[in-house]
Design brief:
single chain; 266 residues; alpha+beta; Immunoglobulin-like; OB fold (Dihydrolipoamide Acetyltransferase, E2P); 2 domains; 5-stranded mixed sheet; 19% helix; elongated; signal
Length: 266
């Protein structure tokens, strides 16, 4: 299983109180409002939030993150926090955050006070995140790890290691695989074969140029059960798939993680 950046930040927050002195425990800012778009989120949902800092002028470097409820406020590792959190401008802003930790959680808006160089909490909102499928990797975690490791190290880690992955169905395309020179030479080519290119991720994720944000599942379209199942899916529906993560890169003009030999896990 992958220990994600957000998981490491959450774990570190639980022991942070022992690492910082009491003078870093600022109270939340009354002029700042943080509101979740709803109370309960599915495990594969991005977490919707609205912030309003228009009445507050005494801070900078706003960042949002979803952490387990009850985690200490101080940030023990600034580098991990920067990678796991989302930068946001001040003012009235509505956006979504990556899926949060399961169970009782909290959206926190951090900022740096004018008289300090360390982050403090400006505001927070309680949310409940649904349970994840046991022994399954979240699509968001897989794409983040792919970006962190790079294509070669990512492929080396996951080669020939099938696992379950869950995320949200985004879209599907049917394509036809033609012959390769290897198949022709070996006389194994038996004609064109249809396959499905199914994209899995999390609705609302912004595109980025430095790494993948979606998983591309390559699935046999000659199997009618696969076609029938895919036809029932709508964008945002949670799905659980089984396959092999091979590598990541640009495919069909998108940066994706390739999830090969992909089948529906349930």
């Amino acid at each position: 299983m992958i220990e994600t950046l957000s998981a490491r930040v959450s774990r570190a927050l639980l022991i942070a109180a022992a690492l910082f002195a009491a003078d870093h425990a600022w109270a939340d800012v009354p002029q700042v409002r943080v509101t979740a778009t709803k109370k309960n989120f599915h495990a594969t949902d991005r977490v919707g939030v609205e912030i309003d800092t228009r009445a507050f002028r005494d801070g900078s470097n706003y960042r949002l993150i979803v952490v387990p409820a009850g985690s200490p406020d101080p940030i023990p590792n600034a580098n991990e926090f920067a990678l796991a959190s989302t930068s946001v401008r001040g003012g009235l802003v509505r956006l979504t955050l990556p899926p949060g930790p399961p169970g009782a959680s909290e959206i926190r808006l951090y900022y740096i006070p004018l008289d300090s160089s360390r982050f403090a909490v400006a505001g927070r909102a309680a949310v409940e995140i649904g349970p994840r499928t046991p022994n399954a990797t979240l699509a968001h975690d897989l794409t983040n790890e792919a970006k962190a490791l790079g294509p070669v190290r990512f492929e080396a880690k996951y080669r020939d290691q099938p696992f379950n992955m869950e995320g949200q169905f985004l879209r599907v395309e049917t394509r036809t695989a033609g012959p390769t020179w290897e198949a022709i030479i070996a006389r194994t080519y038996k004609g064109p074969r249809d396959y499905m290119a199914m994209y899995i991720g999390h609705l609302g994720t912004e595109k980025r140029a430095d790494g993948p944000i979606e998983v591309l599942c390559l699935m046999d379209a000659e199997n009618k059960k696969n076609i029938d199942r895919a036809a029932q899916l709508n964008p945002g529906d949670p799905v659980l798939l089984h396959g092999h993560a091979t590598h990541w890169g640009r495919v069909y003009e998108s940066q994706v993680v390739i999830f090969d030999r992909c089948v529906f896990a349930k």
